[in-house]
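Typical record is below.
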Amino acid sequence: ILLLIRNPKDVATSFYHFTKGMSPLPSYETWDDFFTAFMTKKMPWGCYFEYLSKWNKYADDENVMTITYEELKENPVLGVKNIASFFGISLTEEELQSVVERSSFQSMKKNSQKTHGAFGNVLFRKGGVSDWKNLFSEDHNEKMDKAFEEHVGGTKLGTKLKYELYCKA
């Protein structure tokens, strides 16, 4: 099992923009309205912190590899090598480069009309890291940090995300 996790602040930011483009999902007049719903577990697919907490039970299983979105963005070649190794797949240098190129956000966004139709415009927005800094106030940041510590702060997944959030920022 490959478990891909992401900075909860960027998850919230990405999901906020996603809900704006998806009419079947609840819409929010403001970022503050969305943030309140996100933090009070009123999201269509549940609470991200609870999701992380549930997966944390399996983080040490030998058949589970956890990788962060941030790791893949920072070093996609190493990420693909590690994933291939985990699954016991041997890649030539040419195959490795092909997978890295074809799985890049830019490539997937460029091909999104072919792969996902009109839905591609909703799925592929920026694909960056730390876009949360454009929406979060100091109060939002403090509330998210507190919730993070309460739910997953001392766990394996929490430690991995905390490293990506604070040590590499």
The longest strand covers residues 2-5. The radius of gyration is 17 Å. Strands lie at 2-5, 65-68.
